[in-house]
Amino acid sequence: xxxxxxxxxxxxxxxxxxxxxxxxxxxxxxxxxxxxxxxxxxxxxxxxxxxxxxxxxxxxxxxxxxxxxxxxxxxxxxxxxxxxxxxxxxxxxxxxxxxxxxxxxxxxxxxxxxxxxxxxxxxxxxxxxxxxxxxxxxxxxxxxx
Amino acid sequence: xxxxxxxxxxxxxxxxxxxxxxxxxxxxxxxxxxxxxxxxxxxxxxxxxxxxxxxxxxxxxxxxxxxxxxxxxxxxxxxxxxxxxxxxxxxxxxxxxxxxxxxxxxxxxxxxxxxxxxxxxxxxxxxxxxxxxxxxxxxxxxxxxxxxxxxxxxxxxxxxxxxxxxxxxxxxxxxxxxxxxxxxxxxxxxxxxxxxxxxxxxxxxxxxxxxxxxxxxxxxxxxxxxxxxxxxxxxxxxxxxxxxxxxxxxxxxxxxxxxxxxxxxxx
Lengths: 145, 267
Ligand code: SF4
Ligand code: SF4
Ligand code: FES
Description:
The structure holds two protein chains of two kinds.
Chain A: E1 7-12, H1 16-25, E2 34-39, H2 47-55, E3 60-65, H3 76-93, E4 101-105, H4 111-128, H5 132-144
Helix pairs in contact in A: 1-4
Chain B: H1 2-13, E1 19-25, E2 31-36, H2 39-42, H3 62-65, E3 70-74, H4 76-87, E4 97-101, E5 107-110, H5 113-121, H6 129-140, H7 143-156, H8 162-166, H9 191-204, H10 214-218, H11 227-240
């Protein structure tokens, strides 16, 4: 059976979620592997949530919100961008596979871009395979008990 | 050493300060923090290159701050710790005397934070060789190798929280690691849970860590845990050109942004 990656998408309410809605109303087809979690703003997407996704078995992650200057709350995405820059560096230093996290901006008008982002992310994760290195660590804790 | 004891003795005698926070020789000849309150204590104070711990944390520990105005023996780590605590409004600006000691052993008495700022303006923060070597080594590894390295380290962690207790900037009275609504980090020690705990701690110290290495020094199972916050501090330096614990006007890089912040991974 072909490997079907589990992808978790953390998106903001005002742009990317609306964009993903447009993908649907526009009847565009895209890979069904993604579970979307809606946040008020990218500024609210705590870095811990991304780690929790991996700890709960995700193989890949998408993080998306309004383009710079378009945040509904003016600067949430600017703060988020800095946080991602630093967090990504930390993840890399800890050996977490940062290729598994797609960071992007998708506006409410970019339904087609959303479909494309999901499809390319799913293809990419299919290429790299399941995140067994991380999942083994979770099991390791269980075995030791 | 003589000079330090002389100054500290004077300060206690004049009743200007109630306690001198410094170092002494403890068990197994190890250097340990020491709190001189009486004249007899003065002879136990020591200084020198082995006194490398960051003492800034004691400025706000209740047992010590309750004693009254302190004088604090301060190496570069302690100095930067004090400065950063002042920037984050965690210590009283007036009520303290700082006995700054440089690598050559010269002592300078600083009476307030602007003195401290002046003193620090001529200091170039530098990581010690050993830490730099470890960082370079880790940076050279592949991500896969780094994961194996940290996994081995995380297996050792007993979640004693000594790293947090010793860090001058881990002053929150409620830490996310103890939150249970929601529970971010599992209570029991487990590889992934420990990884999450240290990842969280490093992120919460980003833009604030003063690179003293104290968290790693106190770890009972010798995890070089300071490398995580220190690695971020270095990243901050490269990205935003900032150092921490140097100037009264510094900010936290993580609570600000520039509309044109550069990155190369957001599509
Ligand atoms: S001091 Fe060491 S063992 Fe204790 S919690 Fe920190 S890393 Fe873990
Ligand atoms: S995180 Fe570690 S190295 Fe950084 S300030 Fe705290 S104790 Fe020092
Ligand atoms: S509301 Fe979309 S990023 Fe802030």
